[in-house]
């Protein structure tokens, strides 16, 4: 029979594990939203402070990656960056930031767009039809789901955590994972220093999300994201 002190120690250890899982989910969420916004038109400075706060939850290599990208941002001329964004992602884009651009036929594009929009609506979001499958929108939605999952799990809301976790696994597996991996790979190959660094951070994050997603499938609803 366990003593009161042993029982208390076990509860404290379990609480620390839950806290660590919540922090990791929120770290991934924060970086997902940040990385997605890096590929919107660069009118304002990215929120590096928020990215640093998220990176701290995941470890030193993430903080170092964000610091390196911030240094690249400080060295780049804004007009040059905007011109590169247009070259890469808008005017006859070298690497389209839209998931439907990876489909060859009109029916396939419509199916993908409808499915992505359906995920958004299931969580009370009304997507802009012209932006629903943009990398910024899809990364932002993943961030939204991860944040909701962290909240539900930290408060013992089992049903809400299961619904959100299942939606996240489906969205990542069917849409964000395959699309973002290809997009960031192409952007990294075609871009100058800043967008090459942003795409590199994106690839690092997608691989982290994929690892966490695989753990989530093998141990359902355990906080792996």
Low-confidence stretches: 220-225
- The count of DSSP E runs of length 2 or more, i.e. the number of strands, is 0
The general outline is globular
Give the ordered list of helices and strands.
HHHHHHHH
* Cα Rg: 19 Å
User: Describe the biggest sheet?
Assistant: none
Give me some keywords for this one.
225 residues; disordered C terminus; 0% strand; TorD-like; mainly alpha
Q: How would you describe this protein?
A:
The chain is mainly alpha-helical and 225 residues long. It has a single domain, classed as TorD-like (Orthogonal Bundle), CATH 1.10.3480. Helix content is 75%, strand content 0%. The chain has eight helices and no strands. It has helices spanning 4-38, 48-56, 60-75, 78-89, 106-122, 135-154, 158-190, 193-218. Helix 1 (4-38) runs antiparallel to helix 6 (135-154) and helix 6 runs antiparallel to helix 7 (158-190). It is globular. Residues 220-225 have low confidence and may be disordered.
Q: Could you write a compact summary of the structure shown?
A:
The protein has 225 residues and is an all-alpha fold. Helix content is 75%, strand content 0%. Helix 1 packs antiparallel against helix 6 (135-154) and helix 7 (158-190) runs antiparallel to helix 8 (193-218).
Write the layout of secondary structure elements.
Elements: H1 4-38, H2 48-56, H3 60-75, H4 78-89, H5 106-122, H6 135-154, H7 158-190, H8 193-218
Helix pairs in contact: 1-2, 1-6, 1-8, 2-3, 3-8, 6-7, 7-8
